[in-house]
Amino acid sequence: MPNQKILYITTEMYPYQEDTNMAAVVNKMALKMHQEGNDVRVFMPRFGQISERKFQLHEVIRLSGMNIIINDLDQPLIIKVASLPGERLQVYFIDNEEYFKRKQYYFDDEGNPFEDNDERAIFFARGVIETIKKLNWVPDIIHLNGWMASFVPIYLKTYYESDTYFKDAKIVLSLYNEKDADLDKKIDEKLQFDNISGLKALDNPTIKSFVIESMNYVNAVVKGDEFLDEDLDKAFNETTTEKSEYLDIDSINQLY
Predict the structure, then answer these.
(1) What angle do CA 68, 11, 224 make, to 5 degrees?
(2) What Pfam family is a match for this entry (predicted)?
(3) pTM beyond 0.85
(4) CATH entry, 5-255, from 3.40.50.620, 3.40.640.10, 2.60.40.2310, 3.40.50.2000
(5) Are 174 and 143 in contact (CB under 8 A)?
(6) How many CA atoms lie within 13 A of 82 on its CB side?
(7) pLDDT score at 254
(8) Burial status of residue 241 (CB atoms within 10 A of its CB: 0-12, 13-18, 19 or more)
(9) Phi, psi at residue 236, to the nearest 5°?
(10) Which of 112, 115, 125 is nearest to 75 (CA)?
């Protein structure tokens, strides 16, 4: 079914990340939908190890320049864009010196999670939402991949609840086995600043608890990894949200 507007929000995508299932799956899904005649856009964080020169990233001045307030602090939002190598498929990168310049993803060289991982996820989610609105491009389908992306539906259904911009968009969440870690205990204060409270994930804020929480805010959940770890699999089996077992790339448009 071509001519759909499909937005992929992801933390990983080949060739910007290599050797992970998520990066490969997102690349193949986006390319397949693009080649079938859909209007596809991809949004991801501009992590420090993504080479701007190698992948020819350039700043989109008309989209940059907004500030996102995180916990009462103004953080400048920088938007960069590149075409997927060899394809006319645009990938947008959410950037900010404070949150994304470092060379590691979520853990330091000693394996400790970064203390501001929660703020980075909030900034990413809100940055994507605000940039899409500024693009004046309304997606039919929003497909989420990676734990940071799970903050998007939580924000859409709470902070942006009265905003009709995304009201007709269907949201799909893919589940992957990602390394779990605690999030800052003060995340509840940061979310309360955006009038978000009452989340079950706040009882024990972790990467995984927010992914599980987000299942309640989407239209469909699908396994991104064929076999999920015990906690995720349990949550998948228990959710009342429409769900699908692992799909190969050729079957993904059946879900849409």
Answers:
(1) 135
(2) Glyco_transf_5
(3) yes
(4) 3.40.50.2000
(5) yes
(6) 19
(7) 84
(8) middle
(9) -60, -45
(10) 125
